[in-house]
Design goal:
With 391 residues, this protein is α/β, with parallel strands linked by helices. It folds into 2 domains: 2-244, TIM Barrel; 342-389, no CATH class. Helices cover 40% and strands 21% of the residues. Strand 4 (50-57), helix 2 (65-78) and strand 5 (81-91) form a beta-alpha-beta unit. It binds iron/sulfur cluster (SF4).
Length: 391
């Protein structure tokens, strides 16, 4: 089955650490943007069943529930949606928006990903976020009242002045909340962002060892609270893994609509021919790496330029080919190793297999049936461990 991703590249204010593509919110532009999304739904026929829809950004919660409902109605009209389609929206918790959440639930959204990041006001101020810890708590409470059962919270790690005690306080709050999922990300210092120029603030970030310690602290606390890790940054209560995000790591097809959106499916921007159905049927449901040959055939990775005006002006969004042959062995391996399911040893090269004993001994890997998977300690330094295994 195929996933749909809608990129909503508008933000009320730019966060100083963020290098995602977004432009300032402007009501009229957003309204035209929704119109362009609707045109593109018609312009991208997909015969494969859709089982996930994801509104990401930017700040998708700047769209009104009526606009979200319009997009979802267009999806229902143009595509075949599975009965239990997971429909996620990234929600910025700034201010109280109880009625907004109720209307969003009525519009059909059934999963919220709330950008809480921390439940420490001091931490949120250092990150330049516009919401408070109380806003985050209200958002979760209001989401539950609105009828959301599937609620994810973002947690940012390795932030300035994030001591063990500071992180423990946020982890305690997360453990007590009625949520089903946590996405725990390391703060990345991206070149060109205001944060990357702020040497005083950067000097207050944890070093590599402390970063690994904070990550392991989060893994252990979340496990104790019933969140099972299933990917390097993802933790879920049983039955609540993000089905949409799993598509990225399992190399299942998804189509992205919107300025800056990425896609990986059998639709070539060179031919414009929609082949998502054929390739989706081959890929869907296969375990990582098992379908490498079929998956690589006909699948392309492409993106929409980061240009809102170009997206607004076009009948069909402009698309640029990124990779005509993605998902070959190395990439599939790299993605699959992010998952706690790991990979079969037979998927590794002879040179990589020779590294396994040392990595097991160091505690970076564990045996998993006939294969291997990274341990939490391995995930804490995943770039180095994965690099050693994709030789
Ligand atoms: S972190 Fe989120 S809200 Fe902040 S600027 Fe980036 S996309 Fe916008």
């Amino acid at each position: 089955m195929t996933g749909l991703y809608f990129h909503i590249p508008f933000c009320a204010r730019k966060c100083p650490y963020c290098d995602f593509y977004s432009v300032p919110f402007h009501k009229e532009t957003v309204s035209r943007y929704v119109g362009a999304i609707l045109r593109n739904i018609t312009a991208h026929p997909i015969t494969d069943k859709i089982d996930t829809v994801y509104f990401g950004g930017g700040t998708p919660s700047l769209l009104s529930p009526a606009q979200i409902g319009e997009i979802l109605d267009a999806c229902t009209g143009a595509y075949t949606l599975a009965e239990d389609t997971e429909i996620t929206l990234e929600f910025n918790p700034t201010g109280r928006r109880d009625d907004y959440l109720k209307a969003l639930r009525s519009a059909g959204v059934n999963r919220l990903s709330i950008g809480t990041q921390s439940f420490s006001d001091a931490q949120l101020r250092l990150l330049g976020r516009t919401h408070s810890a109380q806003d985050g708590l209200h958002a979760v409470e209001a989401a539950q009242t609105a009828g959301f059962v599937n609620i994810s919270c973002d947690l940012m790690l390795a932030t300035p002045e994030q001591s063990e005690e500071v992180l423990a306080q946020t982890l305690d709050v997360l453990a007590a909340l009625p949520i089903t999922h946590v996405s725990a990300y390391m703060l990345q210092i991206e070149e060109g962002t205001p944060l990357s120029q702020d040497t005083a603030l950067l000097s207050r970030c944890p070093d590599d060892d402390a970063t690994a310690d904070r990550y392991l602290q989060a893994v252990h606390a979340l496990a104790a609270a019933g969140f099972r890790q299933y990917e390097v940054s993802s933790f879920a209560k049983p039955g609540f893994k993000s089905r949409h995000n799993l598509k990225y790591w399992r190399c299942e097809p998804y189509l992205g609509i919107g300025a800056g959106a990425h896609s990986c499916c059998g639709e070539s921007p060179l031919t414009g021919a929609s082949q998502c159905a054929a390739n989706g049927a081959k890929v869907g449901g296969e375990p990582p790496l098992a379908g490498a040959a079929q998956c690589a055939a006909g699948i392309t990775r492409f993106c929409v330029p980061k240009d809102v005006q170009a997206f607004l002006d076009a009948d069909r969004q402009p698309e640029e080919l990124l990779d005509a042959h993605p998902l070959e062995r190395e990439e599939r391996l790299m993605l699959a190793l992010r998952l706690t399911d790991g990979v079969p040893a037979s998927a590794l090269s002879d040179a990589a297999r020779k590294q396994i004993p040392a990595l097991l001994h160091a505690g970076y890997l564990r045996l998993n049936g006939a294969g291997i998977a990274l341990t939490p300690k391995g995930f804490a330094v995943s770039n180095a461990v994965i690099a050693a295994l994709i030789v």
